[in-house]
Amino acid sequence: MKTAACMRALHIRPSILRYRAPHRALQHPTRHVTTATEAATNVRSTGTRTKNFAYGTVLTLGLAFGYLYVTDTRASIHEWLLVPALRQIYPDGEEAHHAGTHMLKVLHSFGLNPRERGVADSRGDLAVEVFGHTLNNPIGTSAGIDKGAEIPTPLFELGAGIVEVGAVTLVPQEGNPKPRVFRLPSQNALINRYGFNSEGAELVASRLRQRVREFAYQAGLGIDEAAEQQVLDGEAGVPPGSLLNGRLLAVQVAKNKTTSEDDIDAVVRDYATAVSYVGKYADILVVNVSSPNTPGLRTLQNVEPLTRLLSGVVQAVKNIDRKTKPAIMVKVSPDEDSEAQIAGICEAVWDSGVDGVIVGNTTKKRPDPLPKGYLLPASEAKLLLEQGGYSGPQMFERTLALVSKYRNALDEGPKHPSPSPSSILEKTSNSTSTSSQSSKTTTTLDLDQPSPSALSSNVDDLSSSAPTLTLKSTPKTAPAPSNPRKVIFATGGITNGRQAREILDAGASVAQVYTAMIYGGAGTVSRIKGEMREDAEQQKTVTKR
Ligand SMILES: Cc1cc2nc3c(=O)[nH]c(=O)nc-3n(C[C@H](O)[C@H](O)[C@H](O)COP(=O)(O)O)c2cc1C
Ligand SMILES: *[C@@H]1O[C@H](CO)[C@@H](O)[C@H](O)[C@H]1NC(C)=O
Ligand SMILES: *[C@@H]1O[C@H](CO)[C@@H](O)[C@H](O)[C@H]1NC(C)=O
Ligand SMILES: *[C@@H]1O[C@H](CO)[C@@H](O)[C@H](O)[C@H]1NC(C)=O
Ligand SMILES: *[C@@H]1O[C@H](CO)[C@@H](O)[C@H](O)[C@H]1NC(C)=O
């Protein structure tokens, strides 16, 4: 309660916050973009005096505690003061989220946003290879945190190696009626049924374009379309999505609400159009799809619709006007976890040419409270009855198990060899006709070139599932470019460094967080990375002894 009084005392007038940061002057050549963005912002920021208390508090604390301390993500202020304060001020989870997003955006425009300091990541001790890029760390933020791509840069500055923005739907849509987000503080968990509220692909694309143009201008390339294209074509020497070395930007797209899931052609059209707007600003495109959820899934007939859908996305991405195309990942629900469903999804992934899978999401189930035997307070028990997806630390074990299952299934390789790998084999070995052989039988070829990664990239993982492996040369690391190992990102219940490490050990390249940030605040990504480093140090000491 002291906090509330303090905030009232420190109340800063909103007019100060409307101050336009100097770099905004750059927006001139793309004024239509500015107005659209600002219109959206203004609608959201009207009224609510309480929000201004929050901004005032943050800014004033910034002065009182010192800029360096408050803007350093390792400062505990983010966890112990700001997070509970936001929760006090905004009883509604969605309001709190908007306030948090807006605060980051405003603070960023002043250069006052919390950020990770130091050069820890540049040491490369946490680096991972993803899609031919070296990510400087394997911790990501997941979809839903920044649905409208308003704060990708500040999110990267919190230390994330991957930032996923979206989901973005093709046309703007409201989502479900409010309230639609519910907190279970005793569990550090959430239930949400947003229902894909989105400002639409066109507006989101305009924000992403603006970001690229400002980058182009600062890099001295100009601020027009040609400058934008140069950056997108990689001529600035940074990934075109993240605009930061060692980081990648993922953009998630979803279909119109009104488009029926069963009308594959219509869904593909939605995705293709959304991709035509936002695709070129992404390093990774993510699609949200449901698996073929029918009995007898293993028959080709049931995998076919999903394959067709994903192939449509692959085709749309090929049409993107950019030198290097974004990688494509499909996000799958943790509730679709039967062997048949996983096998079906993996088959569609291989057959369509999608590059990887984001394993995990919220669950429709209601996991038992933690610690074991804990009784939820009545107010929270009641919330379990709300419809929606549940997220929280209880999800972790399921996510971990699911990652292992997907890793094994994907590493079995394609059931039907795709034309490209066999033509490569023909070109490089030119010995026998390989077109009708399964991937396993091609392993007897004497390959100078690296073989398809399903065979080569992790022979240890495969030894049980592919006992016939008789490669004469066994390149262990470099997969053939035409058939690289599928990439896995994991999401669901990841809250600390030990868990992130376990997830990576199970075969994922990136561990994404959402709910942990809602409860842990802006320093969460830094904390998780710090814990991973401490763990690694301890391991070293143990092995030395
Ligand atoms: C409020 C909220 C909104 C979300 N919105 C999306 C979304 O638009 N698209 C999506 O794929 N996942 C969405 N998610 C799922 C998260 O990206 C994440 O996969 C999930 O919450 C599990 O991770 P966590 O335990 O770290 O929160 C949302 C989650 C929450 C809590
Ligand atoms: C989705 O919405 C857009 C814009 O209204 C429309 O052009 C498109 O046809 C819709 N998609 C489908 C499959 O109806
Ligand atoms: C996303 O996938 C889920 C199931 O996995 C499905 O129920 C939902 O309709 C999809 N939403 C969109 C917008 O594609
Ligand atoms: C992922 O979770 C979000 C939010 O809970 C939900 O709207 C979406 O349908 C889910 N997607 C999949 C593929 O399950
Ligand atoms: C490779 O095989 C094709 C068809 O069998 C043959 O025409 C060609 O001469 C061969 N090339 C080499 C280099 O052996």
Automatic annotation (TrEMBL):
Subcellular location: Membrane
Domain of life: Eukaryota
Region spans: Disordered: 410-485
Catalytic class of the enzyme: oxidoreductase
Catalytic reaction equation(s): (S)-dihydroorotate + a quinone = orotate + a quinol
Molecular function via GO: dihydroorotate dehydrogenase (quinone) activity
Protein family membership: Belongs to the dihydroorotate dehydrogenase family. Type 2 subfamily.
Descriptive protein name: Dihydroorotate dehydrogenase (quinone), mitochondrial
Source organism of the structure: Clathrospora elynae
